[in-house]
Write a structure and sequence with these properties.
two-stranded antiparallel ribbon, 35% strand, disordered N terminus, alpha+beta, globular
C-alpha cells in the first residue's frame, strides 16, 4: 500500500488535516538534514496568518530557554481554525515538536534504542508502578501552588520513551489553567527530538488516551524519517 503524504511549505501556509487516521507531515532542514515533521491525526500546525504567528511567538517564548528550538506548534484543527479567525488566544489541545540544543547544536550522536534505554533508566519513576501511580500523582497536583511536575516515564517502545507531565504556563503575563501532557523522546536522523502533546485538565486525564495518540504519532514520525 502506498502511503499518502502531504508535503507543505511554510511560505505556502500549513494545511490542516482533519481526517481520522491521517497525519500531516512537512519537511524541514535541521542540522543539515531534511526531517519530516509529523503531527497527530486531527491536529493542524499553526500557520502564517497574523493571529497564528502571534500565538506561535507567545508559545515559543515559554520554552525558549536556549536549550530547545520549537520546530512546530500544532493544535486540534478546530482550535487552529478559531485562532485563524481571531476568536482564540489560548490553546487547550495542542503540542510541540522541539529540538534539544546543546552548545548551539542539535543533541544526538546516540542510537535510538540506546537513547530510549537511557531515558527509561534515568526517569524510571512510574514505569514499574504503571498508570495508577501516575493518576494518583496527577490527582494530587495542585495547579495553584505548583508550576510544573514531571511524573517520569510511563511507557516506552521501539519509537520513543514517553513521560507524563503536568504544568501551568504563563502566556502574556497571565497564568493559564493546569495542563497535562505526554512527552515522546526519540532520535531521528541522528538527532534528539521531543514531541509534546498537551491537554487542558480540569481533572486527572486519561493518560492511556494521550499515550495512545503519542505512540501512533511517534511511530509515524520515526517511520517517515528512515
Amino acid at each position: 500500500m502506498t502511503q499518502i503524504r502531504t508535503y507543505l511549505t511554510a511560505a505556502a501556509g500549513l494545511l490542516c488535516v482533519a481526517l481520522a487516521g491521517i497525519a500531516a507531515a512537512r519537511p524541514v532542514t535541521v542540522g543539515g538534514q531534511v526531517v519530516e515533521l509529523v503531527v497527530p491525526a486531527g491536529y493542524c500546525e499553526l500557520g502564517a496568518s497574523p493571529p497564528e504567528e502571534r500565538l506561535r511567538r507567545i508559545y515559543s517564548k515559554v520554552i525558549d530557554d536556549g536549550t530547545n528550538l520549537m520546530l512546530s506548534l500544532f493544535a486540534a484543527c478546530d482550535e487552529v481554525a478559531e485562532v485563524k479567525a481571531g476568536g482564540r488566544t489560548e490553546l487547550h489541545r495542542f503540542g510541540q515538536i522541539l529540538l534539544p540544543i546543546e552548545n548551539g547544536r542539535p543533541m544526538g550522536g546516540i542510537a535510538r534504542a540506546e537513547y530510549i534505554a537511557f531515558v527509561v533508566g534515568a526517569e524510571r519513576r512510574i514505569l514499574d508502578s504503571g498508570f495508577a501511580a501516575a493518576k494518583q500523582k496527577l490527582n494530587r497536583f495542585d495547579p495553584i501552588v505548583e508550576t510544573g511536575q514531571n511524573f517520569g516515564v510511563i511507557a516506552s517502545d521501539d519509537a520513543a520513551a514517553y513521560m507524563a507531565i503536568a504544568s501551568r504556563a504563563t502566556l502574556n503575563d497571565k497564568t493559564t489553567g493546569a495542563q497535562v501532557g505526554v512527552i515522546g523522546a526519540t532520535i531521528v536522523r541522528d538527532m534528539g527530538f521531543s514531541v509534546n502533546l498537551y491537554r487542558r485538565a480540569q481533572t486527572a486525564p486519561d493518560l492511556q488516551d494521550l499515550l495512545a495518540v503519542q505512540k501512533a504519532n511517534l511511530a509515524t514520525f520515526v517511520r517517515s524519517n528512515r
